[in-house]
Design goal:
This protein has about 290 residues and is mostly helical. It has 13 helices and no strands. The protein has helices spanning about 15-20, 35-55, 60-85, 85-95, 105-120, 125-140, 140-150, 155-170, 170-185, 190-200, 205-215, 230-265, 265-270. The longest helix is centred in the last third of the chain and has 33 residues, at about 230-265. The protein starts with 15 loop residues before the first helix and ends in an 18-residue tail after the last helix. The model is unreliable at about 225-230 and about 280-285 (pLDDT under 50).
Length: about 290
């Protein structure tokens, strides 16, 4: 779509009303039964279209700031409502627990979660933590594991985005989760990440996964509430949580370097004894 009267496209007339009136673009993974929330979602979509398309070339800074503020507060209100709606959250995550659910619906669900995590990056740490807590209680880790192993590149990218958002938010929590997976004899998320890193063809996804592994191994990365309130109950909770996670982080790192690292560096070990590196997929090239 091109803005009307765009000198770069003098022969094109944009039909913005038709575009915004097309209801087929609004897809609900789970029915939103609150008409006020649905109205706010449509309003936010129109504001974004106004900012990014209709007024893209003529926006001044004050108007740009006003539109951004309206979009941000709308998105915050929508997130707050959805995460506090237990019925909605249950229906959202139940999509992944039903074997007969179509792949297209699961894809929409993971893209919705990806969008929520993207919006959450700009809100306060405590509100973001509350959102992620509701997602985890719904089964977010299982959703990430499903998405990372899907054949559809869009689903893998969405799953990687969600995982990176979780790791950036609270790497210590992710280490603790992986450590518990190992203790419970489950396949750890690190193994899934390593398999994807070694087999993924998309360089963007590879870079995201490599960065995720780097952050997980950097034990200096703390929790998002480390610099929050320093007194009272909050400080006590952070201190108790920190002590527990320190031991889990130590266990995670020990197991990673003893077990997971063997899988990660297997391609390099396979180069031992080779006279030449001239084969498809060689990471270091040849002369």
């Amino acid at each position: 779509m091109h803005p009307a009267d765009d000198p770069d496209f003098p022969n094109h007339k944009a039909n913005h009303r038709q575009f915004l009136g097309d209801k087929s673009k609004f897809k609900e993974v789970v029915p939103i039964r609150d008409p006020e929330v649905e109205k706010k979602i449509h309003q936010t979509y129109r504001l974004q279209y106004l900012k990014d398309v209709v007024l893209a070339r003529i926006l001044d800074d004050p108007t740009f700031s006003v539109l951004n503020s309206l979009i941000f507060f709308n998105q915050f209100d929508i997130l707050q409502h959805l995460q506090s709606n237990q019925t909605f959250m249950k229906e959202l995550f139940s999509t992944f627990h039903v074997p007969e659910a179509p792949a297209s619906k699961k894809k929409l669900a993971i893209l919705f979660i990806q969008n929520c995590c993207s919006i959450a990056k700009s809100i306060q740490a405590q509100a973001r933590a509350q959102l992620y807590t509701h997602f985890i209680q719904g089964g977010l880790f299982g959703v990430i594991d499903y998405a990372l192993m899907e054949k559809d590149p869009a689903v893998r990218i969405a799953g990687t985005d969600v995982l990176v958002a979780m790791i950036d938010h609270d790497p210590a929590m992710m280490r603790a989760f992986i450590y518990r997976q190992i203790n419970e004899k489950q396949k750890p998320l690190t193994h899934t990440l390593i398999e994807l890193l070694l087999g993924e063809q998309d360089l963007g996804v590879k870079a995201q996964i490599a960065d995720a592994i780097r952050v997980l191994l950097d034990h200096s990365q703390g929790t998002p509430l480390d610099n929050a309130g320093k007194g009272g109950d909050m400080a006590a909770r952070i201190h108790a949580r920190s002590n527990t996670m320190d031991s889990e982080t130590e266990g995670f790192l020990k197991i990673f370097y003893e077990e997971s690292a063997k899988k990660l560096f297997a391609p390099l070990r396979e180069l031992e004894g080779r006279e030449s590196c001239m084969y498809t997929g060689c990471p270091i090239g040849s002369s």
